[in-house]
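Entry:
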Amino acid sequence: MSQLPHPSSLPPALIELTEWDAQDPSNNASLKGLSFGDAQTRRYAQTLRDRVVIREGRDGIEVETNSHVGRIDVGPIRVAIGPKLPAMPLGRLLRYTYGLRDIEAISETHSPTSLQGFQDILISLLAAEVEDLLRQGLARQYRSRSEMLASPRGELLFSELIRLGGILEPRLPCRFFERSPDWRLNGILRTGVQLAIRLTEDRDLRQQLYQVDSLFGQVQPFTRLSVHDIDHASRALTRLTENAEPALTLIRLVLEGQGLAFAEEKHLTAMTGFLFDMNKFFQRLLSRFLRENLYGLQIEDERSVHQLLAFAKDGNPRKRTAPKLRPDYALFDGVTPRGYLDAKYRDIWSMGLPPNWLYQLAMYALGSPTQVSVLLYATMSDEASDERIEVQQPLRSSDVPPASVILRPVPVTRLAKLVGRSKAGQFGAERRIFAHQLVAMQSGAIGTKTSRAGRSEAYEH
């Protein structure tokens, strides 16, 4: 990938952060006195603002991160955003969330760094998945070929024979079919491996990828790979090729993490780095865990909350459609709605709750049959427990009971332990209890120490 120019010929200054972090010249001297230097880099930084905020201040460059992790080069700096989770639990959660096979591709002691960034975790998993597919033998597909053959087979092409003016040599034009590994699915897999080679800066991992790439033989890679190509290949999977789905998922994550920075005169410029949205990952992780482990209850992803907001019949002259609220999860007992939940990859126990999130959760609570909404947030703290915010009526004389917003921690290290496939049977009962604790529509379901009776009550509800 070509890098955007920066005003100095010196290598970019390395700025290391974690999720939901901030650095500026007051706490990082490397940022003091730096500027983007040209309009193109400023526009580039502007397009990244929903993933990482990089701006010029009076004394230098300021950087503010959110739920995205990875590495990105912008002008005179390289921003390396590492997840707080160690690589091993994170790798296990990634395998579980995206349905990857239980391949131990990541060392217990390895952790994402600026030199071996978060993208290398995904690439390590991709290398292991594709290597396993190659070990089993690439899926082959019959392909039509037309050739002049001395020993005819398949269909004799009389039209071609007439065009040639008859039999002029001891060969005949034939159309036949042969099984070949050179077809769309394998081409995408090889292209994904080659994309990973360009992206990783880990020497050992790149060497492993080169070895994997060499095993594809005559399979031709794509000149340009898009998410549409991957989606098309995923939909076309059959019983014989479904084992390639995890690898396709990883290739899609790597491709989306590269992203596109901006379009100028129909020319797309690729980001010089990789950024991965941990918030989307966390939402998908909880969705799978709850679907698999709730007993008697069901969740539905991103179901709209109807009839909470509506234009008055005589107050909508433009005939607008009322906005619809869409929480991450709706909880049902059969067909009966129980409440709404949201998921956020931010340690609210230690970092606090942004006001705009609270306003959104308050609306979900008002639209809930139980007048309760739950925010499930990721935490590394062993002390985190439920917190409850009441949405009270401003008039003291009102007898309407307050709605409630429950802030509920999800200990990610505990979750990683529970979803380890090799121990699925051992932790089956604990997984079900934990799932019901997470969706309980009363506070106190999650705490530092939970009694046996409390756990049973959360499970029954």
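The chain has four domains: 1-82+262-276, 85-140+181-258, 141-180, 294-460.
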